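#dry-run=false #mode=assembly
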Amino acid sequence: MAEILFPAMSENDPEAEGVVSTWFVADGDEVQEGDLIAEVAVDKADMEIVAPQAGTISILVNEDQAVTQNSPIASIS
Amino acid sequence: MTTTERATRKLTVSKAIVEAIATEMERDPAVFVLGEDIGKYGGVFGQTAGLLERFGSDRIVDTPISETAFIGAAVGAAIEGMRPIVELMFVDFFGVCMDQIYNHMAKIHFLSGGNVRVPLVLMTAVGGGYSDAAQHSQCLWATFAHLPGMKVVVPSSPEDAKGMMIAAVRDDNPVVYMFHKGIMGLSWMSKTSRALGPVPRDPYEVELGKAKVVRPGRDVSIVTLSLSVHHALDVADGLVSDGIDCEVVDLRSLVPLDTETVLESVTKTGRLIVVDEDYESFGLSGEIIARICERDPSVFKTPPARVCVPDGSLPYARPLEMAVLPTPERIRAAVVKMMRK
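#status=ok
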């Protein structure tokens, strides 16, 4: 199983919160390694998240829900 | 165990446009992109994100704020055999470069007796709804459609955004490709769930000039395009419980205009509402209604109606802007009013 963490996008402020702005997959979807699964944002900076491995994705946070950096947003098993 | 590559996956309109441009740039070395902030910045609306890193600064060209110069350069490049995609950042800025667009890009093929082709895509952002005021919120598609010599197309879904961009690049005519900022799926704009949808991985073309019935229905034809398609679909879903069955026609293109599909729809429902985020007078809504009247005025059970932006500049203040845009509330009210007649 692979845990997907919210990336550390703000170096100056490790406590900064961000959001998953778009989930490109739904809970329980099959994904392949390298698939675009989410776009996350801190302030106005966006970053794409791709699947680190193939498998079934479990989504742990909703779109636009505040998340701290380095906390899990999904897992793939 | 073998895994089969799925044929589609979900993308936003913004990412679908990037994919289309990248696909065509890989296929054809004559394709390149130029415009303001399309390189390092990746496009104000994400529509060229990552292309500079992939294709380099010879083919992804950031320009100064000099629309006449760089659109003129694109026209020249197209005449000489390149296939440029040139971006006018906001359609509202057309005033400073219109001579290049309508006297050169649109007319050279005609003036040369058909000997010179101008295979150019003029890509531009349109639309309001996010308090960007009178000079950054217009649609203006009818202004371009009024002038002969260029196709004018406006996708509403991620799938069409990709297929229509590929078709536009491969078209030997100048094509004005307009995307509404509100359907790009951007985190910093108000989101519509319909901005995210399945997009085939392989390259494909969506024929320019064909409308699409995106929701079949029997009572009333809502004929529209771009972000208003999303609103019309939401309204149609909401009216099911009231027993009203709306058909929604996504025009997808002003030039060529698919009169046949609209006529077929109105022949079935007998009722026509045109929803247009452009100004009301002298525009697309009047053109659609006129074309149906010319073909067969007997199809109407009731006079047609339109939901457009009234003839005034778009306000900055949010409640005022929402009062003039063709919002779901205004579309719904127009449908209900027509069905009560």
